[in-house]
Structures are given as C-alpha cells and as structure tokens.
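Subgroup meeting minutes
Present: P.N., E.W., G.H.
Scribe: E.W.

1. P.N. recapped why we're keeping a running log of single-chain structure predictions: easier to compare across weeks, and new members can see raw inputs and outputs side by side.
2. G.H. added today's entry (151 aa).
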Amino acid sequence: MTSLRVVRSTYEACHTVRSILQGFRVMVEDRDLSMDSSFREELRKIMSQGGKIIPKNKFIKLPKVFIGGRYIGDAEDLQLLNETGELKKLVEGLPIMSGGMCEACGDFRFIICMACNGSRRCYKEEHGFRLCAYCNKNGLTRCDTCCTLKS
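Output recorded in log:
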C-alpha cells in the first residue's frame, strides 16, 4: 500500500482496500511503501517467487493484498471478493482490532527514531558521526506499540 497521494488512482485503490478491511474490524499489517523502501524490496521478492523476475526499475501496481501469507489480489479483486461474500470467509479467524488509535504513533505505524531524532546521523566519541543503524531512510522506526512486524 501507499499513503503517498502523488498518483491519485493508486492512493484511492489503497484507501479503498484499507476501508474494506477496516469494515471487518480485523488487524491489518499495512506495509506502506512510501514510508519504508525495504517494503518495496520485500514485495518485489514475494511477487518474484512464481519464477518471474521483476526488475528493480519495474513498477508494481499497488495495492497487493495478502491474507495469512497468501496473495489475494489487488483492489479490484478485493472488492469483488467483498461483494460476493468470499472475503468474509477469508478473514474469519483473524485477530480483531483493538479499539482506538495508537497513542504512540497516531496509527501511522512509524515513529521518529529515538537514537538519531530522525536525522539519520548518530555521534560516537570514537568514530564521530555515522549513519544511524536503527532507522530507515526517512529517519523512522516501526512503532513497537502497535506493529506486529519487527524490522
């Protein structure tokens, strides 16, 4: 998924998927490619497992929906499954969302890195300034309060 609004059709498809899944009140691991580039590489690897290599410069249409580690499809596929009632069967047994917004990150799933304060640079007496080893390229770390995925 992406929360980046540059490409309207992609943003709207991601928003639609998020809304459909929230309607079932199940916990969702939302991997926002605009927040962490490692998610893009992870998706590229997963989508290449069928034997088809996806080059790094090739665009991958978003969103891609997985339930229980199984690829379900894109936004259109999810809408069709929802309309036919099949999606309800697929989400049965998944953990239910806890009520309310995460107090640590406001449901953004990322927080500013506590080691470098988002600057991407840490100072060590013996080495001087170095790139922070704890955060992503945006100076963010996954929220430990609400995220099940650990980096």
